Amino acid sequence: MRAIVLQKPGQFERIELPEASAPAVGEALVRVHRVGVCGTDLSGYLGKMPFLSYPRIMGHELGVEVLAVGAGVKNVAPGDRCSVEPYMNCGDCHACRKGASNCCANLKVLGVMTDGGLRDRFLLRADKLHKSAKLNFEQLVLVETLAIGLHAVNRSGVTKGENCLVIGAGPIGLSAIVFAKLTGARVIVLDMAVHRLEFCRKNMGVDETIVPSDQIEADLRRVTAGDLPDVVIDATGSNLSMSNAFGYVAPTGRLIYVGITTKEVTFKHTVFHRPEGTLLCSRNALPADFRRIINWIEDGSINTQPWITHRCAFDAMPDVFESFTKPETGVIKAVIEL
Fold this sequence. Notes:
Blueprint: E1 2-8, E2 11-16, E3 27-37, H1 39-46, E4 61-69, E5 81-84, E6 87-88, H2 94-97, E7 108-109, E8 121-125, E9 129-131, H3 137-156, E10 163-167, H4 171-183, E11 186-190, H5 194-204, E12 208-210, H6 216-223, E13 231-234, H7 239-244, E14 254-257, H8 269-273, E15 278-281, H9 287-298, E16 308-313, H10 317-320, E17 333-337
Parallel strand pairs: 10-11, 10-13, 11-12, 13-14, 14-15, 16-17
Antiparallel strand pairs: 1-2, 3-4, 3-8, 3-17, 4-5, 5-9, 6-7
Helix pairs in contact: 3-4, 3-9
């Protein structure tokens, strides 16, 4: 069985694995059809992802087909097309008991702390499969990305009429834009990549876009009628951006971190204390987010068509993956086809 393993930063290797065994109680055997490439994968390849250990079979944004199920499985059956919720939580810790499975103390994320989907077939917990009779495998790949954005917007509490700044227009930032727009908020996007801002204007219906400069606060006040954003969602994973974001928040505003950095984030206390700001972090997503997003894609509330800009075959992936890390290639979302 084919697989691709990231042996260390910057080094993929094609390997052969033994065939997966029959599913045990509560498990499903799935065939992987599509694998999405996200910021976590890019950071892991570049050696910047603090939670990823090597060697690792990456791949957590997955569109899969159920091949077989073990005893006791009722939610899926052979032949079902599914999105995968890649957060393997323990169910017993304090976070899990509170319903915060995304923050499980013993969490193992597919493709990050445990091997993921860059292989032909594998076994996983059936309760982590979310089926759809209508969506294709590429649409199913996008559900996990969108779920992270939905969770971040839910954390932010953004409401209709508020100004919401999204910093970083990569896939996670784009997913936050989708749900911020659905609340009726006025959405502003800040990014260094001009092609991403153009994508936001053309496909996402954003109200304003800003290119970073030494006049960001003035630019923000210009597009918010003299105010600053009520909500700032930083999806960059850049400690510099995350540090600067403290200064962009309006009085009683909220700053939400979705991206992750291994470096220190710093700010002058008065900058954030003066507006009585609130700092929130958003980690992963919850099971209900997956079901809601599948329903919204099925009924046409979310259009996934513009998202996937790059595709590559499974066997070619090690040779082309580095190009996905380069902004000049114009990548919004890359998908690997098995």
